[in-house]
Design a protein that fits this description.
Shape: globular
Radius of gyration: 21 Å
Number of strands: 0
Distance between the termini: 19 Å
Mean pLDDT: 78
Helix content: over 70%
Structural class: mainly alpha
């Protein structure tokens, strides 16, 4: 397995039409997704009158149905090719958003968010794996490192994550409400579905397990260092999910409404767009991946711990903005490091299973953690934020037990 490396400066020259399709897909996907998700907690609590623990459980179910089933989407993509999996994901996402717009009971809301999450579990692994495959082909054809294509893909996703909450905020300010945001998200996916139905080629792939061995292997699930990585990474995802649970509550406490929530999500996306590549390049040159994972989780913990300590500041948003900035910086440090550690912990022929398992274990942790943190929303601020800070701090301690690795230094010209 080739060691993980940071991407180079600049964009990839001469992107093919297919790569532009995949990149545009990621952009549109995140617009539709983030036009809805940041406002879901408020809709469930204020609009439908759900208790805090139930709101947390619903949000956790959505994340689990997505992250927890990534391994299924990846396996189906390998078996049937990306086109049918992407198209099925689009159809399910459209149906899920339309259902959520009309859902008025706990059962129907849970059904809608499960459908939305499973749609992403189909769609995202298929698009991401196909983008990586296209990036390799582009590298062979042009000599441009594949990381350039992947960097463009990532930037497109963050641009969509920047515009999506702004679209949701605009619809709320115009009086359209949560239903309008859901329907707008569905319309975006109608466009994505039409584009892929017309332009995505048929390219089936067939899984070939060596020797007919079981898909789920002790090489992964009895691998102690890999399980430690899963647990450490899970604490990050539980913390990240608080952007949709604890952060909306903080913004409403500080300002009396959630209208400013889109601004904070935009801030997070802009930070990633501006700083991800320079920060990753710096960390890959100077610190080992395990150190980056430990440091990233510690920075996330500091973000939660800072909320009750930071004065409200302009418009009362300073504590929330501090949380967003520190959580995003920690994310940019730890996510590439965690993904880069997987090849060091499992055999190459189990890398796909391990990558899916990382998301699945994290999704289960979010399911449990969101329900628990939802019960704390009515607790005094210092108690809430101290408990939330303890989660990634515990993950940082777990990461210290991982085997170390020296950072990979890029080759000349990369």
């Amino acid at each position: 397995m080739t060691a993980w490396r940071t991407g180079p400066r600049g964009d990839a020259p001469g992107l093919t039409a297919y790569i532009r399709l995949l990149t545009g897909t990621q952009f549109a996907f995140n617009i539709g997704f983030y036009a809805v998700l940041p406002y879901l907690a408020a809709h469930l609590g204020d609009g439908l009158g759900m208790a805090g623990w139930l709101v947390g459980l619903v949000l956790g179910l959505r994340t689990f149905s997505q992250q927890g089933l990534f391994v299924v989407g990846g396996a189906l993509t390998d078996r049937y090719g990306p086109r049918p999996v992407v198209l099925a994901g689009c159809v399910l996402r459209i149906a899920g958003f339309c259902w959520l717009a009309q859902a008025g009971s706990t059962a129907t809301v849970i059904g809608a968010v499960l459908l939305i999450g499973f749609a992403a579990a189909l769609f995202s692994p298929a698009v991401e794996s196909e983008t990586a495959r296209a990036a390799v082909a582009h590298e062979r054809a042009t000599g441009a490192p594949r990381a350039r294509v992947l960097a463009v893909f990532s930037a497109a996703g963050q641009a969509g994550a920047f515009l999506g909450p702004l679209l949701g905020t605009l619809l709320l300010l115009l009086g359209g409400g949560f239903r309008a945001a859901c329907l707008a998200g569905a319309v975006v996916f109608v466009g994505v579905l039409a584009g892929h139905a017309r332009l995505m080629p048929h390219r089936p792939r067939t899984v070939r397990e060596p020797g007919g061995r079981a898909v789920f292997s002790r090489e992964v699930f009895a691998n102690r260092p890999f399980l430690l990585l899963c647990l450490a990474y899970s604490t990050y995802l539980v913390s990240y999910n608080q952007l949709y649970l604890a952060l909306p509550a903080e913004v409403e406490r500080a300002t009396g409404s959630q209208n400013a929530l889109g601004v904070l999500f935009a801030l997070s996306s802009l930070l990633v767009v501006a700083a991800q590549l320079p920060l990753t390049r710096w960390s890959a040159h100077r610190i080992a991946p395990r150190t980056a994972l430990v440091a990233g989780l510690a920075v996330v913990a500091a973000g939660f711990a800072a909320v009750p300590l930071v004065p409200d500041g302009p418009a009362g948003l300073l504590p929330g903005a501090t949380l967003v900035v520190l959580l995003t910086l920690g994310q940019m440090l730890l996510v590439p490091a965690a993904r880069g550690l997987i090849p060091d912990l499992v055999e190459d022929h189990r890398l796909g299973l391990a990558t899916g398992a990382l998301s699945s274990v994290s999704g289960l942790a979010v399911l449990l953690g969101s329900a628990a943190s939802g019960t704390l929303l009515d607790a005094p601020g210092p108690v809430l934020w101290t408990v939330l800070a303890a989660v990634p701090l515990a993950g940082s301690g777990l990461a210290l037990a991982l085997p170390g690795r020296t950072p990979v230094r890029p080759e000349a010209g990369i």
